[in-house]
Amino acid sequence: MVRFSRLLLSLSLIAAGLAAPVKRTVAQIESDIATISSQVTTLDNDINGFPASGLIGALEIDIAAGNLASALKQGTSDIQATSALDEADGTTILNAVLAIEPTIINALNGLATKESSVAALPIPGAPGLVLSDLQTLNSDTTAFGNALIVITPADLVPTAQTIFANIAAAFNTAIAAY
User: Fold this and answer.
1) Each residue's pLDDT tens digit, 3-14
2) Cα–Cα distance for residue pair 39/43, rounded to 1 Å
């Protein structure tokens, strides 16, 4: 009976440990941002190569958008599982996001200017697919930004808000084009 009680206690402790939320680290957020950066670069390159890349290029844009959405969702999840950042970590993370900002804006502006090329594709509803991708990425980017702002030191919040406001403006332009 004693062994059974110890076994039950041990299993209960293991189960409680597995059920407890896992705290993420700043290093994990930095890794997520590196992944997001890589996905943004891929998307930007695919957009820059279109329409010369044709139908295959359009499909690559859609795939890249999906991969970026997944990376943003993972980053948001990890940020939400992280406690407040100190000044040094907040600065490091914001600098990493700031480094991606021009590429995101370039990709979105590029996509906005290529709406007629997207519409000319032999895929019914291609502009609608791009619009859907843009809306998803906008939502995921907003969630990522909001989560990051929550854990950012108060004096760095205006910088974070400016970065995400600039990105939101580019999304608005691209979404309006479609």
Assistant:
1) 444 443 344 444
2) 6
Residue 15 has a pLDDT of 42
Write the CB contacts of 155 (distance below 8 Å, at least 6 apart in sequence).
87
pTM summary value? 0.86
**Cα 37 from Cα 124, distance rounded (Å):** 31
Q: 53, 60 in Cβ contact below 8 A?
A: yes
Give yes or no for a contact between 112 and 174, defined as CB atoms under 8 angstroms apart. Answer: yes
Whether 1 shows a pLDDT value over 80: the answer reads no
Query: What sign results for the dihedral spanned by CA atoms 49, 128, 116, 118?
Result: positive
The residues spanned by each domain of the chain are 27-177
> 């979404």: which residue's tokens?
175
CATH of domain 27-177: 1.20.120
Return the half-sphere exposure (C-beta side, CA atoms, 13 A cut-off) of residue 152.
20
- The H-or-E segment that residue 50 falls in is none
